[in-house]
Amino acid sequence: MSNFSLNKSEMKPKYDVIVLGAGIAGLICGTFIAKQGKKVLIIEQHSIPGGYCTSFKRKGFIFDSAVHHIGGCGKWSVVGRCLKELDININFQQLDPMDSIHFPSFSIDIPAEIDDYVDLLKERFPSEKEQLALFFKEFTRLYRATFSTEKHKMLLKYQDLTFKEMLDNFFTDEQLKMTLSAQWGYIGSPPHEVSAIGMCQMLVNYLKDGAYFPVGGTQNFADAITQKFIDYGGQIMLSSSVDGMLTDGNIIKGVTTKKGEEIQAEIFVSNIDPKQTFFSLLDKNIVDDSYIRKIENMKESVSFFLLYLGLDNKIDLKGLKRGFYHTSNDLTFSDNDWFYISVPTEVDPSLAPDNKQIISVVVSSRENYDDIDDWVAYKDKMKKHTINYLENFVPEIQDHIEVIDAATPKTLYRYTLNSKGAAYGWAVTVDQTWSNRLSHTTPFKNLFLTGHWTNPGPGICAVVSSGWRVANMILNN
Ligand SMILES: Cc1cc2nc3c(=O)[nH]c(=O)nc-3n(C[C@H](O)[C@H](O)[C@H](O)COP(=O)(O)OP(=O)(O)OC[C@H]3O[C@@H](n4cnc5c(N)ncnc54)[C@H](O)[C@@H]3O)c2cc1C
Known about the structure:
It is a single chain. The chain has 15 helices and 19 strands. The protein is of the alpha/beta class. The protein folds into three domains: 183 residues, 3-Layer(bba) Sandwich (FAD/NAD(P)-binding domain); 96 residues, Guanine Nucleotide Dissociation Inhibitor, domain 1; 115 residues. β3 and β4 form a beta hairpin. α4 packs across α8. The two termini are 37 Å apart. 49% of the residues are buried.
């Protein structure tokens, strides 16, 4: 792993821009600005850059901490275009099939090409054939509209609708609706809560622009951006936590760090949880009242339990498909636990030594973060629960485990400081999406927000777009 962190003697007396947090949004934003010759400093509390897009190594196995794949990395899609603009080369492997979905009563493999998926659905649900054509046409138009910064009529049409309401307007077949909703775990709220726009952004992005895995692990994605940021003259301070912001009226003058540094800049970009930015780094009493109330009333997205298994080279995992495994056929998904299971070594064998294999599982967690007192007991319980579930597909799994590790919502919090280990920033509900999410500008003239707590929303593709937008706002000012 490269050592990116700056030598303290190289620190400048004042920067053009300071970015708080080296999540993917902060890295992309900083790199675009550094490319224009501005003096940019990124400050990150963790010892490695990437936020949720990081990897860790145990006994030769490389595990991705959170992110499993990235949407829109083709040449003409958002991430692809962004990397091209920044002259960053990353070796991606496109996932084909894109995913698979499993319910107790049926399963479907989702092809990598959207047209093939629509054809498959038409075959499977012939009575909805015409409606399927209309739905995907509308869904794709809505997706395109999400790239406009204006109040596009498609956005206005769907702004107040949940994904369930959108589906109900098109279809009567309940199994088809379940199929189209089955990947809601990627955005964190079930179909009757998730915003139609948010679900559209996530789903069409994967279906139309593909799902990709950065060869060598997701850390390679974050590292490649960080390296380019440094090549453009940017500086990054790792293992440095920002613990305060210095203000003069509605202008931010500088930041302080836990190590006691005081660093000044003209402009600040926060890639971190707004609750931390406005309630902890700033004195809440000096921030506009209505803005504070808005943040206080917003709800975090779900968090997850994650299990990472390093397995020997004798286990046969061929039958274990990557995708969502739902535990009931309940259409409302209210009784549905789900597991997202993947075998990353099938996509990239270099992640494990000697032809060994990795299983990675993301598990929906029903428990309220604040109600969990004993995180060790919670971790233990969830480990057993997840291995028991895996035994349905790989009965002898226990005999093949060489490395076992796990992360709880508390772990996700510890490594990113996202409140309650929120996987996706604010929940992507109707009242917290698009114009209802926090905008990039803030009550402070020279403070901008980027990342999954702001627009366009969560997921790597969306935060790349967010970082890019904020860089343009700053550079075009
Ligand atoms: C389990 C899980 C699986 C996921 N899977 C996928 C997936 O497969 N594909 C996908 O596209 N998305 C996935 N997501 C969502 C995606 O990871 C996030 O939406 C995205 O990474 C958020 O990026 P960000 O730049 O907004 O911020 P973050 O990744 O949250 O980064 C914020 C950074 O700020 C730093 N920071 C915080 N406070 C301070 C401070 N005071 N001082 C200095 N630094 C600070 C943190 O350490 C962190 O590095 C997943 C999320 C989770 C949790």
